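About this split. The held-out portion is used to measure sequence recovery: a designer receives only the structure tokens and must propose an amino acid at every position. Recovery is the fraction of positions where the proposal matches the reference. Here is one held-out target exactly as it appears in the evaluation file.
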């Protein structure tokens, strides 16, 4: 076959392909909102038709015999029709799998949990189906966390309302008694009113601190802090409230455990852990506090003898407002200054968790013999 003949055949094929391809492109634009199967068929028909037409045109140029030309045309047409049928079948499978994925997505959008999606005709569809199942599981977990958070919020609001109502009712009663001159001991009434107001102030302070933690607006002034010194100062502040409970510091005075922390916030966290231990430990039993460092992390541990926490309750002890089982019901600290440090609203441990997280650390709790141990873990500068 000479070069002029080759160029003639190539030119004819190019012209046919341009015309048919342009027509197929126009059809796809007009059918852009139609079914995927129809769009696939238009694309395939355009491709096959351009091949068939090019073969017919080349045969017309190459063959002189009408019989041979008819045979070539028939072969090309039959092959094109068979290919079109196969392509329609493939498109139907693709659309069916796409429909299964679409229905699964709609179920996920409606809040249902999808465990499996029958769309495994190809590796891509199978991967997309697995992603939808994973997304459904993640959304289910997120909804469960949201439900628990909403439940915790409602409980917190109910408990706070109760805790606010009780001292306010007492203040109202004592104020009315003083106003009507029926108070047998006005000085005692004034003292009790002041203590109740102090308790309300501590509760408001706890709520404000928790709101800053939840909103991410808690600002820390970091500086090197000796954990032993901080623990010693906090224990000294709380020792008058111990009421026969011995607070032991297990760390040695020469143990230099230093962290980058906000001393005010960290002191508050340690104080909350100690107050929690004081409220749950029977009189005459010790509370142990220790500061240590291991594997680049410093920790303050507080161990009480309050009978431990039910294993089912351990995941919830840092929820705002959580009070625990009757075995862990707080005992009142009836000493002057107790309400200055604890509002009694069940917010102390939640604040500890927030302060630990703000420092890049964590607080954990687990049961030990006859009690519970809380570990406040913080990264050290070297870690």
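Reference sequence for scoring:
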């Amino acid at each position: 076959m000479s070069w002029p003949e080759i160029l003639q055949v190539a030119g004819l094929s190019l012209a046919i392909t341009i015309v048919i391809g342009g027509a197929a492109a126009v059809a796809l634009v007009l059918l852009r909102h139609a079914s995927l199967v129809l769009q696939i068929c238009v694309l395939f028909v355009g491709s096959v038709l351009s091949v068939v037409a090019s073969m017919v045109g080349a045969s017309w140029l190459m063959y002189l015999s009408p019989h041979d030309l008819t045979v070539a045309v028939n072969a090309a047409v039959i092959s094109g029709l068979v290919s079109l049928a196969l392509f329609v079948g493939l498109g139907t499978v693709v659309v069916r799998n796409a429909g299964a994925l679409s229905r699964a997505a709609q179920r996920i959008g409606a809040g249902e949990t999808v465990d499996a999606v029958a769309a495994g005709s190809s590796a891509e569809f199978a991967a997309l189906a697995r992603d939808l199942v994973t997304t459904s599981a993640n959304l289910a977990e997120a909804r469960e966390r949201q439900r628990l958070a909403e439940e915790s919020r409602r409980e917190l609001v109910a408990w706070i309302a109760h805790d606010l109502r009780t001292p306010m009712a007492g203040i109202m009663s004592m104020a009315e008694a003083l106003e009507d001159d029926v108070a047998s001991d006005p000085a005692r009434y004034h003292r009790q009113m002041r203590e109740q107001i102090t308790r309300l102030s501590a509760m408001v302070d706890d709520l404000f601190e928790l709101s800053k933690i939840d909103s991410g607006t808690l600002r820390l002034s970091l500086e090197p802090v000796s954990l032993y010194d901080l623990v010693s100062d906090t224990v000294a502040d709380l020792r008058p409230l111990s009421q026969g409970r011995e607070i032991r510091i297990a760390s040695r005075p020469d143990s230099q455990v230093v962290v980058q922390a906000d001393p005010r916030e960290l002191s508050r966290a340690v104080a909350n852990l100690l107050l929690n231990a004081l409220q749950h430990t029977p009189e005459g039993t010790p509370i142990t506090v220790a500061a240590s460092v291991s594997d680049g992390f410093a920790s303050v541990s507080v161990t009480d003898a309050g009978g431990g926490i039910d294993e089912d309750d351990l995941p919830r002890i840092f929820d705002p407002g959580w009070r625990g089982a009757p075995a862990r019901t707080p005992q009142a600290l009836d000493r002057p200054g107790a309400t200055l440090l604890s509002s009694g609203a069940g917010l102390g441990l939640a604040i500890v968790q927030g302060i630990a997280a703000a420092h890049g650390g964590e607080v954990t709790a687990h049961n030990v013999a006859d009690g519970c141990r809380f570990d406040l873990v913080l990264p050290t500068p070297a870690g």
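Annotator remark: Strands lie at 223-226, 247-249, 258-261, 287-294, 297-303, 362-368, 371-379.
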